[in-house]
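Request from the bench team (R.T.):
"We need a structural guess for the complex before ordering more zinc ion. Sequence and SMILES attached. Just send the tokens back."

Command: build protein-zinc ion structure.
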Amino acid sequence: MSLRDFVFEISDVLFPPLCLSCRRVVEGVPPPVFCADCLGRISFLSGSRCPVCGVLFPDSPAGDHLCGDCLASPPFFSRARAAVVYQGILSDAIHRFKYGRDIPTGGALARFLADCPFDDLDWRRCDAILPVPLHKKRLRERGFNQSLLLARALGKKHGVAVDFSLLKRRKFTLTQTGLSRQEREKNIKGAFEASRAGQIADKNLIVVDDVYTTGATVNECARILKHNGAADVAVVTLARVL
Ligand SMILES: [Zn+2]
Ligand SMILES: [Zn+2]
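Reply to R.T.: structure attached below.
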């Protein structure tokens, strides 16, 4: 046994990998983020959906079709995909990460996201992954950008560069929590600006955020990127509010 393997074996005994939710010991190489029981309690997004914004049509006998919102006002992104539904143990973990500054939980969530199959996203055609930027005041308060941590894990997994400076947040916005769709769109309008437009023109970009609620934030990012000539903007989030 090499010294490296020995060190890993000892650390597994002293600090065994734990399920992110119930803290039971989990086994596997690499260890799974959630134990089988907790994984079974997570709602993955499946079934008929809107091919653009990804909203689900539960119990709909029809296949995939455009939703009313995307028909009435088509978003600037070509498609938005999320790994899981924002509820239960996943929303608890995101809350611990974001507001409890629990970075190890964030790292585990990022690994979980990177391992999710997004079958209709072509990562090989993607030129760059862009995290939704935080305003510098919010960054000072929180100490980190949760979307950047998620974007880095996706970039590493799929071999795509992460660029956190193409999009900048120029307007400090109050939290979107509790606002209606229209209020969210108004609140976020003009919040972002693009830098280095030459890096955006004709590029295929993927914007990453932690939670998709009404899509107002990622759509405003996509609007700025398309305005600066992006060929295509897709969106990936860890969770989606349904
Ligand atoms: Zn568990
Ligand atoms: Zn839609």
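Two things stood out. The CA atoms of residues 114 and 156 lie 8 Å apart. Residues 1-41 form one domain.
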